[in-house]
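User: I'm writing a tutorial on reading structure tokens. Could you give me a worked example: one chain, its sequence, then its tokens, then a sentence or two explaining what the tokens reveal?
Assistant: Sure. Here is the example chain.
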Amino acid sequence: MGFKVNDLVLHPEQFFREALGEKEQIMLPGLIILAGAVIAAVSGYLAGGLSVRMMEPVLQGMTPVILAVAVIAAVFGTFVAWVVWAGVFYLLSRALKGSGSFSRCLEVVGYGFVPQIVGMLVTVVAALVYLPKVTVPALTSAALQDPQMIKEATSVLMHDPAMMAFTEITAVVSIVFLLWSATLWIFGLKQARNLSLKNAAICVMIPVILFIVFQAYTLATGA
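And here are its predicted structure tokens:
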């Protein structure tokens, strides 16, 4: 089966019926996740630049290490998210008497991740626009030894107007494109786990809504 994005987006039920009617194959969904991981790495690199600017007066020469950690964490986190979403959907659908393999759930989550790649691209653009405008407080050697000073510096950073705008934009973008992915996951899980559309929606929307509530709470409280 050839992968066509327009079929996935416009006719998800038919797409998943055909895709999951064939032999299990993780490679293509995995490549989609890899594409997302690469974009996440770019975002991680840009965000890591803030840490570099904050700690540069103290940790001179450590810039490559800080940026490498940010990039690796972003890539690793994307693949972890793939497995976690698939695992949650698998367990919830199992409770609703669903049948089918875990690898099928991985396929569904991988294909359904396509909208989030678009969202991640929007986030990169927002990072390029807003992060250079952020005023980053520089930490001294003494400050790095004082948890309270680190906390205060972080608070100043997060409440910078440009940083707040970036955070709000990325939160909204994340929610919008996650909901788009959720609609695709519902149709995919229906086919992958032999569920009714209602039960598939329950399995997908419960964790998605909980995740969105958590994101909204974090944004609202600045936690």
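What the tokens reveal: The chain has a mean pLDDT of 90. Residues 101 and 171 are 32 Å apart (CA to CA).
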